[in-house]
Amino acid sequence: MLQRWEEGCQSGRRLWLEIRKQDYAASLTSVHGLSARQAAFLVLRPVSERSPEETVYLDHLCRLDPEIAQATELATTFLTLVRERPSDRRERQRQVDDWLAYAVASTCSSLHRFAQGLQSDYDAVLAGLRLPTNNGQLEGQVNQLKAIKRQMFGRAKFDLLRLQDLYAA
Question: Does the chain have fewer CB atoms within 10 Å around its N or its C terminus?
Fold first, then answer.
């Protein structure tokens, strides 16, 4: 496949059809590789949970594109910081500051904007890394209620909204 790719055949479907004639049993998706969404989930998965094939694939992606490498490194570092939550306040703040500086200076526009958003609510970010509790469940319930309310806008009074919310729960 590498030889055919280097010869200019860069259509995953065509490559699959050619190797299928040589008794290749796998599906077309195995030739195409991961979708962007699958690759993003691969980056978000803890390193310890990645299979050896996934690790090789991600390493290859990072070697192909410096921006992917930088985004992967930033995402992995941030997720490690969130998952491990350093107990020492100064160390935690130093790691957050280092990550924010690196992310703001990065060429990855999505992570750059994300870092700017975290900087605007810096104290809450530090508290979120310090405290064991969060309001995720409450925010999810409020979000669901707002979605139901938007769907019913102008159609009914509070009693129907209440019943609709109870039904959704």
Answer: C
Sign of CA dihedral 99, 102, 107, 112: positive
Residue 103 belongs to what domain range?
36-130
Angle made by CA atoms 80, 81, 86, in degrees to the nearest 5: 120
Q: Are residues 126 and 49 in the same domain?
A: yes
Three-state DSSP class for 116?
helix
**Assessment of whether the complete model's pTM goes beyond 0.70:** no
116 plus 162 within the same structural domain: no
Question: Tell me: the pLDDT tens digits for 122-147?
Answer: 998 888 888 877 777 788 888 888 88
Q: CA separation (Å) from 8 to 4, 11, 33, 51, 57?
A: 7, 9, 18, 30, 22
Nearest-angstrom CA–CA distance, 90 and 143: 34
Domain count, the chain: 3
Looking at the structure, tell me whether residues 43 and 119 fall in a common domain.
yes
Question: For residue 58, how far is the Cα from the chain centroid?
Answer: 14
Q: In this structure, are residues 43 and 72 in contact, taking their beta carbons and an 8 Å threshold?
A: yes
**Residue 113 vs residues 74, 108, 136, 162: alpha-carbon distances, Å:** 13, 9, 22, 37
Is residue 9 classed as helix, strand or coil in its secondary structure?
A: coil
Which amino acid type is present at position 63? R
